Amino acid sequence: MPSQTILSARAFRHPIRARLIAPTRAKTANPDDSDRKLFVLSFIAFFICIYTLIL
Fold first, then answer.
1. Gap between the Cα atoms of 10 and 20, Å rounded
2. DSSP strands (E only) in the chain
3. Among residues 6, 5, 9, 7, which one has the least CA distance to residue 17?
4. Whole-model pTM?
């Protein structure tokens, strides 16, 4: 016979916490988007280096 002191995960929570809405997950970034950002950053860094060498 299960003990009465062991409660389910939902019943164990505090009443105020039980009423809160579950947090929504953040959307993950598109991997293609990070590739584009890396390309643009590398492209700009290349021209900054070349520009500083010319001056």
1. 12
2. none
3. 9
4. 0.42
